[in-house]
Structures are given as C-alpha cells and as structure tokens.
Amino acid sequence: MPSLERAGVRPHWVGGRRQLSAPRLRADTPERAGLDPAALAHLVGEVHALTAGDRPWAAGAVVLAGRGPVIAVAEAAGWAVRYSRYDPQTDAGVELPPAAQVPAALTTPFDLASLTKLFTAVAAVQQIERRTLGMDARVGDYLPEFRGAARHGITVRQLLTHTSGLRPELPLYDCPDDTARMAMLRAEAPSSAPGEYRYSDLNMILLQLVLERVTGRTLDVLVRDGITRPLGMTTTAFGPCPGAAATEDQRRPWAKADRGMLRGVVHDENAWALGGVAGHAGLFSTAHDLAVFCRTLLAGGSYGPARILGPDFVELLLTPPGLGFAVDQPWFMGALAGRGAAGHTGFTGTSLVLDPATDTFLVLLANTVHPRRRPPDSGPRAALATHLARAVV
Q1: In this structure, are residues 246 and 370 in contact, taking their beta carbons and an 8 Å threshold?
Q2: Which terminus of the chain faces fewer neighbouring Cβ atoms within 10 Å, N or C?
Q3: Contact 47, 63 (CB under 8 A)
Q4: Mind giving me the DSSP string for 303-332?
C-alpha cells in the first residue's frame, strides 16, 4: 500500500479524536494526475473501438481512469440499449429503431455482476474489524444447519479466498421456492479439497448468510449503511434499477432461464432466484461511484470525512491472495499486474483495477452480454489497463 500521506490522506479532529480525511475525486488534466495524455488518448480510442461495428465487444461502455484524487479519463461509448432481442437464426441482435436506442452516458448504471463480491468482502472485513466475525472461524459456528459446510470445517477465510472447495455454482434458479433453495445450500459440501483455489459464487452466498446471521441485517442494508451511504455512492444499490444498461435476451438454451431482454433487473440467474440481493451478484452502479470505491481503498479506507475501514484492514483485503479481490492477474489487469494491483471482473462486462504501487485506478463498465452472452474475452480489459500503466509518469 502507498503511504497514506502520499495518497493525500490528512488527519483532522472529530469530537476530540484524530481522524483520517482523504481528498475527494475531481476531474482534471492527465498532467495534473501525473499521467501521459498520449497514452490515455490510446485508452479512449480503444474504448470507442470496442463498441463500434456490427458485432462489437460490447454494445456500450463507460471508462474512468485516474491517479490519486484526479479523474483523468471519463468517457462513454456505444449504446446502453441497442437491441430488442437476439435472433439465433442469424446469430445477431435485432436492433431497435434508432429513436428507441439509448446511448451510453457517464451516468448510466450497469449491472455489476461479480463486482458485487467486492462489496460483500468489504462488508465482511468490516465485521472482522469490529470483532463480530472471526476470520478463521468456521461457517458451522454461525450456520450450524448448513451441514455440508459445517461437517468439512469451512472457514470464513476460505470463503473470502475461494479455497473452500465448493463447486462454482448450484442450479438455485431451477428450485421451485426459497425452501428448496435453502435446502440445497444447506446440504452442499465441498467437491474438492478445502485449501485449494476454486472460484465459486457459493462462497459469497454463504458469506452473505453468515453476515446476515451475525448482524441481524440483510446484505443490502449492510452495503448501504456500511459502504455506499458513508461514501456518498448514491447510484450504487441492489436492483431493480430503472435506466440501467440492458444486458441479455435471456433464453434457453444459451442461458439458464427464460426471462427475455433484461434491463434494470439482475442478469445472474442465481441472484435473480435469490430475490436480486446476493453476495455474488445483484449490485448496479455507475463508473463514478466505483471510482469513489477505488479511491477509498487506495487512501486506506477513507474518503472525505468518511472512514469505512482502517488502513490495516484495507491492507488485509488487498494483500495476496486477497480477500474477495484478485491480486496481480495480468489476464485482465494487463501491465498493471505485478506489484500488488487488485480488482475483479464481472460476467456482464464490468471490471475494476486499483494499483497501490502507482496510486492509479481503472473502472470499466460494459454490457458485453447485450444481446446475448458470448465466451469470455478479457483481452480488451487487459489492453485498457496496459494503456493506463504506460501512462504513469
């Protein structure tokens, strides 16, 4: 982590107690941010290229990038809503009339998909900081009725680091009701040896249930009261989210449910089955709000007068292997990886990277699944991150 002084954090006094205050984000020139404008121009050009043509990487995209408290790039490209449906005969989207298409804007909310996991992780570490949750406590101590997790001694740390051994997902979307969904989760046991890395949405679903049991509050309330409200992230919340970018014409056989063209409701089928609030997916947000989230972590847990975590606990989140956060993953971080960069991707086309070594951040929101999901391609994410890395003066 950079020193808090280098990150612009200054002490102030509240009620006789010394607090840390971090400067708020502001838009300014690349030079003021210590970034090369030519490299950032390549980044902006690439975002527009990704949304151009008949079969773009994404229908629409918004990118924010900066260093320290300065936003040096804020660019929207393409369309938040472009298609009415997907045509499997032509393997292409059916475009809406031009007047009905909606351009992507800097203020457009996107379905964050798995970026939701980062907020669940922060909410968990907040409880660890308050000593209401034990990092190495067993899930069975909090949820004894979850027999599979309890019998195998799965810990909170294993949920946060994806080392529980749980399979990637369960077909909760095929269950007839909440009772059947909870029964399936309670019985689920690791399918590989605990301790080995295996990315799983079930980890964050279980962590959500642990947090709700420990606090007596639902995850959406924990995220709102502990993260988004103190930081002024007014456009970040669990759905429904009218005005969000459209995602997928969700139909079988390419999807897991028949829901039609989705806009403003969660894309992930399991999050939808769980009512839209889930530890692994369900949040909607704008690029500026996510930049605030990045800035807060880079500044040791503070933004303006608000503090959501102490610096030691932010470091705990971001230290390899990371708690909820992926660390130094070049497949989507490009040349930012290698010195402790942290972040995550989302299935709908979203990603964020924050790099403590250079005090930089990159937020990409895109609807790559509009009009339908494709095999994942994170090459463009890595390329944008590399442009930012090359911009650091």
Answers
A1: yes
A2: C
A3: yes
A4: EBTEESS-HHHHHHHHSTT-SSSEES-HHH
Q: Report how far residue 267's alpha carbon sits from residue 347's, in angstroms, rounded to the nearest whole number.
A: 9
Tokens of 183: 């029964």
Strands 302-303 and 306-307, by their bridges, are antiparallel
Q: How far apart are CA 124 and CA 298, in angstroms?
A: 18
Tokens of 345: 């991707």
* E runs forming strands in 42-198: 60-67, 70-81, 83-87, 92-95, 102-103, 110-111
Question: Could you give the C-alpha distances from 112 to 59, 107, 183, 285, in angstroms and in order?
Answer: 15, 14, 28, 7
pTM above 0.90, yes or no: yes
d(CA 277, CA 16): 39
Segments of the chain with pLDDT less than 50: 2-7, 9-19
What pLDDT shows up at residue 86? 98
**pLDDT (tens digit, 9 = 90+) per residue, 14-36?**
334 444 567 899 999 999 999 99
Residue type, 287: A
User: 18 burial class (0-12, 13-18, 19+ CB within 10 angstroms)?
Assistant: exposed
Token code pair at residue 281: 């997916």
Name the burial class of residue 339, with classes exposed (0-12), middle (13-18) and buried (19+) by CB atoms within 10 angstroms of its CB: exposed
Domains and their CATH numbers in the chain: 10-111+280-391 (3.40.710)
CA distance 323 to 155: 13
Report helix, strand or coil for 291. Answer: helix
Q: pLDDT per residue over 209-238, tens digit each?
A: 999 999 999 999 999 999 999 999 999 999
Helices (DSSP H) in the chain: which residue ranges?
Answer: 37-50, 116-129, 139-142, 147-151, 156-160, 178-187, 201-215, 219-223, 229-231, 269-273, 287-298, 311-318, 330-333, 379-391
| pLDDT score, position 393 | 86
363: helix, coil or strand? strand
pLDDT of residue 180: 97
End-to-end CA distance of the chain: 19
Rounded to an integer, what distance in angstroms lies between the CA atom of residue 324 and that of residue 342?
10
